[in-house]
Amino acid sequence: MSAPTNLASTLAPPFSMVSKYFIASVLSFVLLCGLMVLFSADIQGHHFQPKLLAMTHIATLGWITMVIFGAMFQLVPVVLEVKLFSARLGEIQFWIYTAGTAGLVYGFWFFHVGVLFTVSASLITLAMALFILNIVTTMGRVKQWNLTGLFLLSALVYLAMTALAGLLLSVNLGYPFISRIHLDYLKIHAHLGFIGWVVMVIMGVGLKLIPMFGLSHGYSTRPARVALVLVNIGLLGMSIEWLLTGAAWLLTTYVVILVLGLLTFVVQLVLILKHRMRRILDLGMKHSVVAFVYFLLSALFGLGLATVEIESTELRESLILMYGGMIMLGFFSML
User: Fold this and answer.
1) What is the domain range of residue 335?
2) Of the N and C termini of the chain, which has fewer Cβ atoms inside 10 Å?
């Protein structure tokens, strides 16, 4: 048995715990696909409508975040060479998170946004807090940090921000207390989740796995370091400007910085692939390449939405739905 295999078997948590996350993720994906077919008419029109919100959260919470939880429980100990703090805590988190997600999706679907909805959102927030505690405590044992660890640590910060924003927005639906328009905060919540949490994890893990499967050596990681800085500056600045409704030129500046950061990471991937020893890409690597093509297109599409004035409300809503679909169905599903 090889040394990496020994390391993985020693440090990784029991697969019986991790597999629950993967199974739940697959079931959520199947449910999402079925609902998209049966209720395709509800996908059209404005993005803030009950069934579309329910399907979006099946995708983001039940499918994408669920599989990230499982993957991080497996990968973080191996990548950072430390034992997971508590597999038992991961088990408890799963059941709390699953119950919360089911309740939230039910609440969105029928737009019952009372006590059950708020309790469900609170359960999700609690589960995410347990996950962050588990992973941060695990990371506290790391003796030597690497670039992947910095991406994952950033992702955890954004997960906390996303969870808090989501909880406040959930409470506001049933018991309004926010004076501004709900949708103004929704876009902050969405981008903190999509870019700050999910994309940061994918970039960090990709830095480790793509060179591993492509047998890449001798490449510079400077573009990834630059990308980490630019994405953090751009995303935080953009979120603050949305929150404070600051000057339009400043918001545009942060959006451009964010997109430059994402494009710089694509440059890093190109460098990794250029230095690979395995010249023929296997099916999994081909999927990853196509996914990051959608990643590039989504970044440019988002830049256009943020900087180009679109007079037609109907056209803008259609483009927003295309933007979300390109990210979830083009980028995430191809990984």
Assistant:
1) 180-335
2) N
